[in-house]
Amino acid sequence: MPTTEPNTRKVERVAELKERIDRSDALLLTEYRGLTVSEITELRRSLAEGGTKFAVVKNTLMRRAVNDAGVAELEPMLEGPSAVAFVEGDPVAAAKSVVDAAKKFPTLVLKGGFMDGKLLSAADAKALASLESREVMLSKIAGLMKSEMSKAAAMLVGAQSKFLGVLEAYKDKLPAEDVVEAAAPAEDAEAPAAEAGDEPDQANDDTTEAEASGSEEEE
Residue 43: which residues within 8 A CB-CB, separation 6 or more? Predict the structure, then answer.
């Protein structure tokens, strides 16, 4: 009596591969013909350090998975003994690891890949390995931003210093002008004071005249 267990396992495997494809930032397809189990294990460990899972796959199952995941462009590359690097992290670092491994194990062939919705040829995948890693690029961007911020700060300090110099020069001229302007109101203030001082004298004169007049009447 036929059993459905093998088919169930295949369906589960296809679903697992599709899930890995969906989670991956990039895929790198290789042919591992001639690699020993220990060499594949070494390669798997080196890629795992960067968050990449390297798995030997059956082409028939992987073809179904790439179609289910909407990346059928990869199907022609699934020929011969295939292993896939499911990159969850920096694709550049993963490509470097695969290329370095290919130098160490010449039988390992990088066939191409898939990243950012685009199919990568073998040449594209190798070119990806020649780029700077994400950490290096971020470090350079941070350094560039720091440099630009330093330039901006220097320009700001220079502008502020220039402004303060102009302000100091203006302050040197300001007191002399204030003295001239303040002198006129001070002189004007003395006149009312003098006029106010004259009023008591006038009142005294009036009193004296009144007393004199009274004296004359008494006489």
Answer: 35, 54, 97, 98, 101, 105, 108
User: CA end-to-end span of the chain, whole Å?
Assistant: 167
Answer yes or no: are the C-beta atoms of 56 and 83 closer than 8 Å.
Answer: yes
Buried b (16+ CB within 10 A) or exposed e, 42-70: ebbebbeebebbbeebeeebbbbbbebbe
From residue 149, alpha-carbon distances to 85, 137, 139 in Å are 40, 18, 15
CB of 32 closer than 8 Å to CB of 81: yes
Other C-beta atoms within 10 Å of 170: how many?
9
Sorted by sequence, the CB contacts under 8 Å of residue 190 that are 6+ apart come out as none
43-57, 114-128, 165-179: segment of lowest average pLDDT: 165-179
- Please state, in angstroms and rounded to a whole number, the distance separating the CA atoms of residues 95 and 83: 14
Q: What is the pLDDT of residues 83-131, one digit of tens each?
A: 999 999 889 989 998 998 888 888 899 999 999 999 999 999 999 988 8
Residues forming beta bridges with residue 27, ordered by sequence position:
86, 114
3-class SS of residue 73 = helix
Please name the helix (run of DSSP H) or strand (run of DSSP E) that holds residue 57, with its range, or none: strand 52-57
How far is the C-alpha of 185 from the C-alpha of 50, rounded, in Å? 83
Q: How many Cβ atoms from other residues are within 10 Å of residue 115's Cβ?
A: 18
- Tell me the C-alpha to C-alpha distance, in Å, between residue 196 and each of 184, 189, 202: 19, 11, 11
The per-residue pLDDT for 193 is: 47
